[in-house]
Amino acid sequence: MTDVLSADAKTAPQPMPPLRPEYERPLEPLADTTSEEVLPVYRRLWQRAWPRKSLILLCLALLWEIIARLQANELLLPPFSAAIRALVEDTISGVIPVRALNSLDVLIKGYAAGVVLAFVLTSLAVSTQLGRDLLSTLTSMLNPLPPIALLPLALLWFGLGQGSLVFVLIHSVLWPLALNMYTGFTGVPETLRMAGRNYGLRGVRYVLFILVPAALPSIIAGLKIGWAFAWRTLIAAELVFGASSGKGGLGWYIFQNRNELYTDRVFAGLITVILFGLLVENVLFRQLECRTVAKWGMAR
């Protein structure tokens, strides 16, 4: 009897759930709204970085002018307008451009040599255990050593010339850049490494086509740090060395005018140093980031 009832229950049709009738609800039109709102000019400008930074610089210059006029001693602190006047005069006369070119000539040589050496040293470190030990030992020993402390040794080895300045510049660029490059290389995902090996990449080709693009954010950060170290080291070395091979740079320009108590020209030299720093940081490196890591989605 139980088997008959269960068989009837299996064969009996199951009741269908009630079907809800379909309906379409039209959307109400948006009342008096536009899809795009044109922002005012001042808001569009404020969204850019350069107007905000320009406003900050303008406020700092105004504060400098007020403090200088209140203390009324141009020997200690000339007004901002006097420093700008000295900067314009020496730029038109050609003094500052010649000094700046001398500094940039030495800087490019030392910076390029430091970058090449850092690349070679880091490539060895990611390829062999001995290279890793070498990089770790050298950076632990020499990275904390201030470049200015090597000036007497550089004078003894290379004499009073560009060789001494290039030597201290290489020291200031090499170690921070090598550390950043090595950190970037070690952070490359194993998937990319395996993909490179599967394509048969070895040695320099493996470093150039796999490690360098993947570690480019760290490399650019190291290049920026190395540039800042090199620039400040060069100005400090020129202040100590003076003119090298008869060619003085911006540091020598500042030193000369300090000795002659032309404080406004001292500030003109400092402003030139700052302007070069801003130009390289916000134009050169920014363009490099926009065309590489920002374009690839690796940085914002």
Overview of this protein structure:
The chain contains 13 helices and no strands. The chain starts with a helix and ends in a 9-residue tail after the last helix. It has helices at 2-11, 41-46, 49-71, 80-93, 95-127, 129-142, 151-158, 162-186, 190-198, 203-214, 216-241, 250-259, 263-291. The chain is flat, with a radius of gyration of 32 Å. The chain has a single domain (75-296), classed as MetI-like (MetI-like fold). Helix content is 73%, strand content 0%.
Q: Can you tag this structure with a few keywords?
A:
flat, plasmid, membrane, 300 residues, transmembrane helix, MetI-like fold
Blueprint (SSEs and pairs):
Layout: H1 2-11, H2 41-46, H3 49-71, H4 80-93, H5 95-127, H6 129-142, H7 151-158, H8 162-186, H9 190-198, H10 203-214, H11 216-241, H12 250-259, H13 263-291
Helix pairs in contact: 4-13, 5-6, 5-8, 5-11, 5-12, 6-8, 7-8, 8-11, 9-10, 11-12, 11-13, 12-13
